[in-house]
């Protein structure tokens, strides 16, 4: 799969999750939460959904860009996002906020995207761009 297609796929997945979080926050959180949905939880789900929607746009528009330090930063930003999301999910599970199903669902998605973004971030063609002289040419 080309980097362009992976970034488009990541944008589509982000949008599917984000639309669910924004339009049906109670339905989205009730399947993974150990407590019934509340107005506060729904507000946070909506807020996080809007951020995820924006990340989808960033990934989509970067998919049309040639290799650059900016594209590499987007790939790294996505890696950091997914690593922190796993840590957040584990913490939420340990504090009885989400159930095991929610933890596993999130972890699988995050690990798949960590592997994908890492593949493109560490690919030889991107390592060749780490020199400022090569990027300015």
Q: What features would you describe in this structure?
A:
The protein is mostly helical and 137 residues long. 79% of the residues lie in helices and 0% in strands. It contains 7 helices and no strands. The model has no long low-confidence stretch (mean pLDDT 90).
* Uncertain stretches of 5 or more adjacent residues: none
Helix content: over 70%
* Biggest pleated-sheet summary: none
Q: Based on DSSP secondary structure assignment, what is the total number of beta strands?
A: 0
Q: H/E order of the elements?
A: HHHHHHH
Count, helices: 7
Overall pLDDT score? 90
Q: Please tell me what the overall shape is.
A: globular
Strand coverage percent: under 5%
Please report the distance between the alpha carbons of the first and last residues: 27 Å
Q: Compute the CA-based radius of gyration.
A: 17 Å
Structural class by sheet pairing and helices: mainly alpha
List the helices and strands and how they pair.
Elements: H1 3-23, H2 25-30, H3 39-62, H4 69-94, H5 100-121, H6 124-127, H7 132-136
The gist of it:
The protein is mainly α and 137 residues long. It contains 7 helices and no strands.
Main attributes?
137 residues, mainly alpha, globular
């Amino acid at each position: 799969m080309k980097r362009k297609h992976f970034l488009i796929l990541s944008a589509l997945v982000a949008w599917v999750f984000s639309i669910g979080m924004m339009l049906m926050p109670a339905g989205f959180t009730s399947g993974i939460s150990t407590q019934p949905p509340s107005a506060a939880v729904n507000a946070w789900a909506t807020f996080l959904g809007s951020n995820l929607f924006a990340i989808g746009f960033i990934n989509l528009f970067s998919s049309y860009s040639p290799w650059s330090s900016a594209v590499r930063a987007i790939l790294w930003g996505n890696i950091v996002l997914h690593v922190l999301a796993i840590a957040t999910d584990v913490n939420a599970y340990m504090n009885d906020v989400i159930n095991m199903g929610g933890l596993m669902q999130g972890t699988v998605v995050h690990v798949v995207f960590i592997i994908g973004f890492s593949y493109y971030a560490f690919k030889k063609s991107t390592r060749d761009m780490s020199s400022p002289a090569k990027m300015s040419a």
